[in-house]
Input
Amino acid sequence: MKENEFDISIRNLMQDAEETVSPKVWEGISTGLDRAPRKRVVPLWMWRGLAGTAVAAAVAAAVILIHPEAADSNQPIIQPTTALTVAEAPENAPAAEETAVAPIEEQVSRLEGRTAYVPEPLPVVERPEGDPPLLQEEIVPEEVAAPTVSAEPQARERVTGDEEAFNQLAFQERRAIRNGSLSFAINGNLQGNNRPETPTTARRKAPSFLMPAAEDGTGIRENPEFSFGLPISVGLGIRYDFTTRWGIGTGLTYTNLSRSFVGTYSEVEKGRRTRFEPNTDIDNLQHYLGIPLNVYYHFINTGQWDAHVFAGGTFERLIDNHYLIHGADGDIHYHEQVEGLQTSLGLGIGTEFRLTPYLGIYFDPSLRYYFDTGQPRSIRTIQPLRFDFEIGVRFTLRP
Output
């Protein structure tokens, strides 16, 4: 059943409906109708008060409409809402006092004849992609929208702060690179005295005889059998680290090489042999002063532990080649002058443990090769490729 048919059916059913009224009710109604209507008198002061109130309200409304900025800015802004403004009803509309309900068709026709007015829509506020949509109460008309604060000054300020921090870090790094780190070391070095038998060592073990340069001179003839002592070195080192990775070091080292052999000693003065010691024990002590020059690369530097590799060379000068000859009539000291330098190259890896920021213990093993430069017989000339064990204490002046 359609809606209008349902309303018509209900109205038809209620058309002949009657309700019995009590006689007392009718008696009261008839009595009231017979009375003459009484006219109410409104005092003059009430009219004046109403007129004054109306005038004050009109002035206040005019001030607010003409000067909206005079209103309190703290008051919430009333948002306009979409509403329908209905025109006045046509002349043939039924009076208000009529109680009869018009049919559905007539009501629809009345609504269709009315004119609706819709205000202009609110401005659309664009939102960045990904932001939640605005609620109705968040929408502010364009003329009263709050001024937006640009984020550009804040971004520029943040970028400026980052640049200052970066420049400060770069300055500190340049200062660290420029200043570097200076350290001193006291070290000791120990080498082995093994001499494997090879064709080269066999040739170098051949007997040697030191002939007098002229009629006045002394000579020593060595037998093949000899033994070597442990090479021992002590020294002072200085290292300058340009950065936390690279550094260069040098210093001064003293090395003592020793050996013993059986040989013959002849002493000649003015063409005559004044002393002769055949097949006697002879000790040879060689004293070297050297200057090492190494380059260091620190691949681990944690502040307490340091691991590095290094490579470089050493230049040594034989300052004293001393022979101690144990003769039958007592010991004989003989010193021989040797020209030239002993050169070598080394490559090693080491580590250092710092007890404090200024004091550390290091251990630098290395592999070193000694070149043949015409030096006296020693473990270096017999076995030129040597394995060094250097240990020392390092003092850092500027960690």
Observations:
- Confidence is low (pLDDT under 50) at residues 70-90, 93-98, 199-216.
- The CA atoms of residues 80 and 122 lie 8 Å apart.
- The longest strand covers residues 272-301.
- The beta strands are 181-191, 217-228, 232-241, 246-269, 272-301, 305-327, 330-336, 341-356, 359-370, 385-396.
